[in-house]
């Protein structure tokens, strides 16, 4: 079973998480306007499950998920993590469709960051409280800068009270996912990151099966109902894009949970929110979303990158200092034992 043994390896995995979590939505962008998100989500959930199973089988063949012996409470926590994440993710997309990125994204992801990182840290403090709080607030500030950039780009503000409420509820659900996962990976019989990944993906898939039909019948963002016949009439290209999007997210999830086993879920999730920056890069350089934006929008983007790098730097530095102190303490203890034996 692969597990990072150094902080550098864990950071590289978290950077891969940022890349994946900031890129999966490109799959939907390629078919946006032609297909409903609810229809896309069926394939996305399948891709999450298939991608997680494949990566876990390749990297963690000794995982408990493949030979049994898991604690039922930890299994329940991991399934719950997948369920609440999925509900938050669906609500985030619904909110974006009503209010746009300028309102929905910072409200939902910013709230999720504060709740998720805060509760996960309380369950297992992986770094000192002060740098964790400062780093999280800096990352939150970077998301606000991102929202300001989108707002500056927009010709007029697109605001909806309904969308704002949906974004807040989505943020609460998404913020509950990291602490639920944390509960599954600590305690007397913790799940290893691969087992936790597979069970979370199973929770995502089961939640989609149980709830996506409801959202098709009664679209939370408004508009006409979607029919299952529409899903089967769509092209193979559309289905492959949905599955690919899910696999990309799954890769980021597996990498993040492997790293979290080394650095803690709170730190891992804080890094993972850097997918916001990756999404902004896609928007600027690939989708040309800022092609006609005023100069001030680019100032906000620069501030976004600055605050995020600063926040991650504070958290990473605190974690590195803790690792150095632990290593120094272990060396001192070993020397003391050697002297006593003499």
What does this molecule look like?
With 342 residues, this protein is mainly α. The chain has one domain. The protein has helices at 7-21, 26-29, 37-59, 72-99, 101-123, 129-153, 161-184, 193-217, 228-233, 236-263, 265-272, 275-286, 295-341.
Task: Sum this structure up briefly.
The protein has 342 residues and is an all-alpha fold.
Q: What's the structural blueprint in terms of helices and strands?
A:
Blueprint: H1 7-21, H2 26-29, H3 37-59, H4 72-99, H5 101-123, H6 129-153, H7 161-184, H8 193-217, H9 228-233, H10 236-263, H11 265-272, H12 275-286, H13 295-341
List key phrases describing it:
342 residues, mainly alpha, single chain, globular
**Poorly predicted spans:** none
Q: What would you report as the Rg, rounded to the nearest angstrom?
A: 21 Å
Number of strands: 0
Mass-distribution shape: globular
What's the rounded overall pLDDT mean? 85
What gap, in angstroms, lies between the N and C termini?
A: 39 Å
